[in-house]
Write a structure and sequence with these properties.
6 helices
Length: 103
């Protein structure tokens, strides 16, 4: 699910569109592998936001670079929040966090 939405976000440079594109397939994957829908939605959101904040061609970085009169590539190393978001997302996936009760 994380890889699916990440590739869609990198391809489109729009996290909303990538979530809408990956959502139906993520739902099928979460049902097949018994992943809680809340966790699946969180994974979709985390990884779409993560890559959106690190792409030098994303609208946010282009706008910030325009205001600062620098190249968007110069901002990427300072995109700390998206990097931490991605690491925390991977930790949550590998350690199966949070452990949610079934409804």
């Amino acid at each position: 699910i994380a890889g699916l939405v990440s590739v869609a976000d990198i391809s489109t440079a729009n996290n909303t569109i990538s979530i809408l594109m990956a959502g139906p397939l993520a739902k099928d994957i979460s049902e097949e592998y018994d992943v809680d829908p809340r966790k699946s939605a969180s994974i979709l959101d985390m990884f779409a936001s993560c890559f959106q904040g690190m792409l030098p061609y994303s609208p946010q970085l282009i706008a910030a670079a325009g205001v600062a009169s620098i190249s968007p590539f110069e901002l990427v190393p300072y995109s700390i929040y998206p990097m931490i978001l991605g690491v925390c997302g991977l930790v949550a996936i590998f350690f199966r966090l949070p452990r949610l009760d079934k409804k």
